[in-house]
Description:
Elements (H helix, E strand, L loop, with lengths): L2 H12 L5 H20 L5 H25 L4 H21 L3
Helix pairs in contact: 2-3, 3-4
Amino acid sequence: MDLPQRIQNFNRALNMNDILPHHTQQKINAFFAQVQRHARGPEAPGDTGLMAKGLISINIEAVREIVLGIDRPDPVKQHLYRMLDEIKDFACSLLGN
């Protein structure tokens, strides 16, 4: 799926206020589960933790690009950016410093 299609899907989801909170919570839970799996890697936990932090950053930046393209007022986008920063900080804190 290309970026314009993802943006269109994201806009559609934002217009479905009754679905978005549940959908978002599922995605966040799945994301944290993925981070925790990477952090408990069997070979080199330190390297795996570093890799997981990189994956977190890449995922957050990808979502930031989607937010940038949505048709919403800037205060809404700023709120979404703050939420993304909080999610990133929390996910990284699960992995330790």
